[in-house]
Design a protein that fits this description.
CATH architecture of the largest domain in chain A: Orthogonal Bundle
Number of strands of chain A: 0
Oligomer: heterodimer
CATH topology of the largest domain in chain B: MetI-like fold
Shape of chain A: flat
Largest interface: A-B, 104 and 98 residues
Order of helices and strands of chain A: HHHHHHHHHHHHHHHHHHH
CATH class of the largest domain in chain B: Mainly Alpha
Largest sheet of chain B: 4 strands, antiparallel
Helix content of chain A: over 70%
Structural class of chain A: mainly alpha
Strand order of the largest sheet of chain B: 1-2-7-4
Shape of chain B: elongated
Strand content of chain A: under 5%
Low-confidence stretches of chain B: none
Distance between the termini of chain A: 51 Å
CATH class of the largest domain in chain A: Mainly Alpha
Amino acid sequence: MKFKSLAIFLIISSFFLTCILSIWKIMATLQGLSFNNLNITTIFLIGILLSLAFVLIGNKINHLIKIFLLSFIFSILYFYSNEASPYWYIFGVFLISLLFTNKLKKYSMQSLKEDFISEKVIFDFITFFGIVFFAFVILFPFYIMLVTSFKTQIALLVNPLDFSLDITKSLAELFKSYFVIFETYNFGRYILISSAVSIGTVIVTLLFAIPAAYAVARLNFFGKNFLSTSILIIYMFPAIVLVIPLYTVFSQLGLRNSIFGLLIVYTATTLPVAIYMLQGYFKSIPKEIEDAGIMDGQNWFGIILKIIIPLSLPAIASVALYVFMIAWNEFLFSLMFLDSPKSFTLSRAIQYLSGDAETPRQYLMAGSVIVTLPVLFIFIYFEKYLVSGLTAGSVKE
Amino acid sequence: MSDSLSKLEKRTAYTLVLPAVLLVFAIVLFPIFANVWISFKDIELKDIRIPEPRAKKIVKSISENQSELKIIYKLRNSSLIQEIRNVQFQDKFPTNVSPINLDPRCNFQSKKVVCNFGNWQAKFRENFEITIQNNNGEIIDKKIIKSQKPILSGKADNPLLTTNFTLENFKKVFYENNFVELLLTTFYFTFFGTVGAIIFGILAAQLVNQNMQGRIYMRGILLFPYVGPVVALAYTWTLLLDPNSGTLNALLVNFNIIEQPINLLGQKYITISILGFEFKLRLALTTVIFFEIWRYFPLVFLFVLARLQAIPQSLYEAAEVDGASPIQKFIHITLPQITAIISILFMIRFIWNFNKFEDIFLLTGGASGTRTLPINVYQQGFAVSDIGMGSAVSIVIVMLLLSFMVIYFRLIGKRANEV
């Protein structure tokens, strides 16, 4: 029994160490180091030795000294069993093994006798390294996007795995792709159009949604229940089934290729979510405050303007940011309605750029970085508001 | 008193709600019904403009002294399929200028030539000429004549509003469109995309929930794919997966994991042999599904994490005392607490994946076996330019969606309030 849990412990811990070191090796390869072998078996075996040494030593020496000693030995073994590698890489290996051995702290020959220890070991390691894994999988494409935009066409062709940034180059050379897409491909204009459409959508949506949400939350009228259920159903309906009729009607009305047309469509498609999110918040405002307003002789307009809006600023902010992101990221309608480069939004412009097979990929990625950065900045900065917005507007994207 | 108050309340409510309702009706609900109409019509992209009479004016000198000019109007019907009825033509001329030998369809009064051209067939074209002269024999300024644009008017049916219907589109959808494969691909994509996103979402939520220190940061990072613009993300993935110079293939070849680069987005099938059995996997479709999972598991993660954080810690402590293993804790405590939210997320994601257009369009354009129903709407409507057919496919989507929703509200609609 004890042997079994020890074996499971060794295998699991070493497996995760191998995974992390492989990720490290991949990242190093992308910095231009030429590794040709992941050496999984070797690392796995040394990893088992490391874990075994750790539990065998137990509490005989100070934990800190122990992990430094073991990591040092591990790094040396790693160095000799692997391809030639620079010292910074080995230093990284040393740090990873430090982290790893520190993680092993709670395990000893004693603790391996506990109930369900093998399950606990698995859960423990999955929790820790699973997060590293998820973070890697999520961030890797973003990393590739960013570094590709700084490379040149030739460098990418010579070694498609070398994503290291040449810091000796001047800034102008490093940001060359960005200069090109602004000068040759007119991205300044697209940024302006995208911002205008998105901000316009936010303003118009709020203008329509706040009164409607207030009525749904507070007033009694015939058809209210029908309205609130149909809001839910409407935003289940996909943009793709709206496209053909809207396209034909917009063509006849001359609304294609116009920012105004896009604005109407974005507003209408985000309104249900906005109303749904806002009315939920309005309901949570105590009714007594409004009654006081009515006593003071305020009409509905005054109540909304002077009581409801100031009290629900956080909710309005989250709706605004959420609508902004939907409008900024929107692609389908801009693909359908905009054919003239004069009225492209950023997303449509990037798609147009990619239509030409000759367009170097670093330009495409520079464009992608430009369209992604504002959204990510807004998201990171206002995460708290946005997460509540996302949870409330759950189904819209 | 209270009666008039409630009347006032109602009136206010309608004033507040109406603008939003009207807008949503015009842009969201109206098109859904309009689809039904269009789907029964034989109509193509080039037919959707309302036919209008057009004229191009060319001015030519015919005499030395330029006191006479010939004006040629190139008249045409803008439509190739529809006639324009009762076409009226009007052009203005400066003082002292009058036409000679005017066409019998026209007459000249108060400096205007007014013509009645009758009906124009589809594709109608005519070169119509007027010769003008200055009554005093002076030079006529060509520029002034040129700058005056003729006004044309005529009656034509809006091709969208005519009442000739056909069932042809639906016949084509079901019989000539590989409908069964289309449906299977759509369901394959939808089902695995949804299930994958839910599994990864639960896993990520479970992990992040265990790990106290980095929870806020991890929550932010994990949501990146969900909030990022689809265009940027799809092209980054295309670049990553490219067979010739993509990073993933280059890495795999570099570490000798594969011998030849794999065209993950351009190859319909890949044969995998496991234990001597050979499987044919829909490669491009699977890759697209992975992209889908990558992009949408964060949503599941977010909701499940919120739910997990609401589970009282005392439940786990009690289980600990009873000697439950981690797996038992997950199955008997965590899972029952999240089934409600999972069932709702399943349906929501299912419906949204079913409608997914952008992701597939940007990654493969619907090639290599990734043609789903929404992609087909686009292909029929805009690539083949058959608007009627595209609408018919839209109708099929709407019908399927409605049936999903009925199932949804029957099965788990009641639970929605519990979450």
